[in-house]
Design a protein that fits this description.
Length: about 375
């Protein structure tokens, strides 16, 4: 059997990783400034993370959601404390798209309405409802076009109210900072206005923090830079540091009922062990502080490069915008300088999503390589 080839691949075969480094099958070391699409939060193969998952595997790796699993409660408690979101309840699932799918479903269950507002350049995943609120027609099949969705420009409160006042909107979904689209974000005025309008027109506000969450922006969640309180928050990527897991934080004012949501694998023992290890490491290594320090250093260094026209994002979710497309630059960074970076829908933008415990020395390696290529 061959693979169903949906991914254009770089010719690199990673076989080992540690911290912010990855080694290929020829023992070449690479600097990882992309964390496999922003997934690696506490660094590759962190010893505490490895120990916790290994230990769990020796006890029990999986049982279904039909029996008690105290690790789920431990994870929810820890997540509430570390993120300062103790007034939310947690539903555990397996991927970012699935988290958004469930959040959108909850909004529709609770309000009895079906229309969703999403924003230009958004990316929320590839399952039915998630892809329908993603602003990319190319990845929507005919079957995905049944959900009623209105796509609006970011930061336009007037158009937002015009759409909400029709009264048929169950939820508004947006990213804390846009990822795949190219690091655009709402202003504080917009986030605050959005929160008020959702409340006024009884639509639930869903913050997709799948990429911008888990400390990546320098706050635990990117929306926390704007002092608002969403009804639901979706998380994935950095949550498991590579173990596939995701969740929906649902405000305690929204009541659960048996059978409302469900999954076979979500919240399994191994996933909880991975998720707990990540939160413990974020906390005791004070990674949010590191994100802020390294981010400041990175941005100061990037400003010294003439051809960088614009620096976008927050914390260690950074976009370097160039006058030209960055495809060739990314190839040179990988094949000549052995550095992984990311691209975006905005073809002129280089996306930087390193592990949250990366050092300024490693940033120097990147800046020197970038200057050399340019
Ligand atoms: C903001 C955002 N939402 C949702 C998703 C979908 O997550 P997954 O690929 O785990 O389904 C992604 C993935 O890139 C994302 O960046």
């Amino acid at each position: 059997m061959n693979l169903f080839e949906v991914y254009p691949l770089y010719d690199v075969t990673p076989v080992k990783a540690k911290g912010s480094s990855v080694w290929d099958d020829k023992n070449q070391e690479y600097l990882d400034l992309y964390g496999g699409h922003g997934v690696i939060s506490v660094g590759h193969s962190h010893p505490e993370y490895v120990a916790k998952i290994t230990n769990q595997l020796h006890n029990i790796g999986f049982y279904s959601n039909a029996v008690q699993n105290p690790l789920q409660q431990q994870l929810a408690k820890k997540l509430g404390e570390v993120s300062n979101c103790e007034d939310y309840n947690l539903f555990l699932c397996n991927s970012g798209a699935e988290a958004n799918e469930n959040a959108l479903k909850v909004a529709s269950f609770v309000t009895g309405k079906s229309k969703v507002i999403a924003f230009e350049n958004s990316f929320h995943g590839r399952t039915s409802a998630s892809v329908s609120v993603t602003d990319n027609k190319k990845i929507q099949a005919e079957i995905n076009k049944f959900n009623p969705v209105t796509i609006l420009p970011l930061n336009d409160l007037f158009l937002l109210e015009k759409t909400l006042e029709k009264g048929d909107v169950c939820s508004v979904i947006l990213e804390g900072i846009q990822g795949v689209g190219g690091l655009d974000e709402g202003t504080t005025e917009f986030f605050k206005g959005l929160e008020k309008l959702c409340w006024k027109y009884e639509a639930l506000l869903i913050l997709d923090e799948i990429q911008s969450g888990y400390g990546r922006s320098g706050a635990f969640f990117a929306f926390q830079h704007h002092q608002i309180k969403p009804d639901m928050i979706t998380v994935a990527k950095g949550m498991g540091n590579g173990y596939p897991m995701a969740g929906v934080l649902i405000h305690e004012s929204i009541k659960a009922s048996f059978g409302m949501l469900g999954t076979t694998f979500g919240g399994n023992h191994l996933a909880c062990a991975a998720g707990l290890a990540v939160l413990e490491i974020i906390e005791h290594e004070q990674l949010l502080e590191n994100v802020k320090e390294v981010s400041e250093y990175f941005i100061a260094q990037a400003k010294t490069i003439d051809v960088v026209k614009n620096i976008k994002g927050k914390g260690l979710m950074i976009g370097l915008e160039f006058e030209d497309e960055v495809g060739e630059l990314r190839k040179k960074l990988i094949y000549e300088e052995y550095i992984f970076t990311g691209g975006a829908m905005n073809k002129n933008l280089l996306r930087i999503l390193p592990p949250l415990n990366i050092s300024t020395k490693e940033i120097d390696v990147f800046i020197t390589a970038l200057k050399k290529i340019l």
